[in-house]
Write a structure and sequence with these properties.
The chain is mainly alpha-helical. The chain is built from seven helices and no strands. The chain has one domain (2-214). Helices cover 74% and strands 0% of the residues. It is globular and about 50 Å long.
Length: 215
């Protein structure tokens, strides 16, 4: 048991977890772009990312499988981030929200693909909407709690303000996305901007996290 703990918390393992934070945002964009490009009639401006894995869609199995893989990789990055910030009071909360995001919004979306058009009419479709909503709340809260933790760690100087700005930007984009969703206007565009802001944040944090672990 002790040997396993040493392996999990070894420098090589932590470096790998940090590297995943750099790889996954880039990989997400590449995979979702390709899946959208090869699907006939798919419009990334008006259709959500989830619709790439909707029931009956071409390559839906690949999309759902990638959602799960992406969620697992995000959870591994969260473990690395937890070990790379000051272990002050509540420092575990931010990484925990990233874990919840990985479990609900990514893995959950892979397990419960949405209905055609993500209408939420079947059990699977309704579950997809539920896990997506939980995941969105986790994504909104994570930057604020991590911002609070980074304030106590001099190795993250300058990243505190960045995390706060990202948190505010995610809140703004989440509101815009919800409005766009209710009006059925450019849903795909605003969702991609929302997740794009989040991925930029993860990417930037991962670069500094990798620097910390390699010292």
């Amino acid at each position: 048991m002790k040997d396993m703990k040493k392996i999990i918390q070894s420098k090589k393992t932590l470096i790998l977890c940090a590297a995943l934070g750099i790889i996954v945002p880039v990989l997400d964009n590449i995979v979702f772009f390709i899946l959208g490009a090869i699907r006939p009639g798919y419009n990334p401006l008006t259709q959500t990312i989830s619709e790439l894995g909707e029931v009956g869609a071409p390559n839906s199995t690949i999309a759902s499988l990638y959602f799960i893989i992406s969620g697992i990789l995000l959870i591994l990055f969260s473990f690395g981030l937890y070990n790379g910030i000051n272990k002050g009071k509540g420092s575990w909360i931010g990484p925990l929200f990233l874990v919840l995001l990985g479990i609900f919004d990514f893995i959950g979306s892979g397990i419960f693909p949405c209905d055609p058009g993500c209408a939420g009419q079947t059990f699977t479709g309704k579950m997809h909407l539920i896990v997506s909503i939980i995941g969105m709340f986790a994504m909104i809260l994570a930057p604020f709690f991590i911002w609070r933790s980074l304030k106590e760690d001099e190795r993250w100087e300058g990243y505190q303000t960045f995390s706060l700005i990202i948190g505010i930007a995610i809140v703004v984009m989440a509101v815009i996305f919800i409005v766009a969703y209710s009006l059925a206007i450019l849903i795909g565009l605003f969702q991609r901007i929302l997740y794009g802001v989040f991925r930029v944040w993860i990417f930037v944090l991962a670069i500094n996290l990798l620097r910390i672990f390699r010292q």
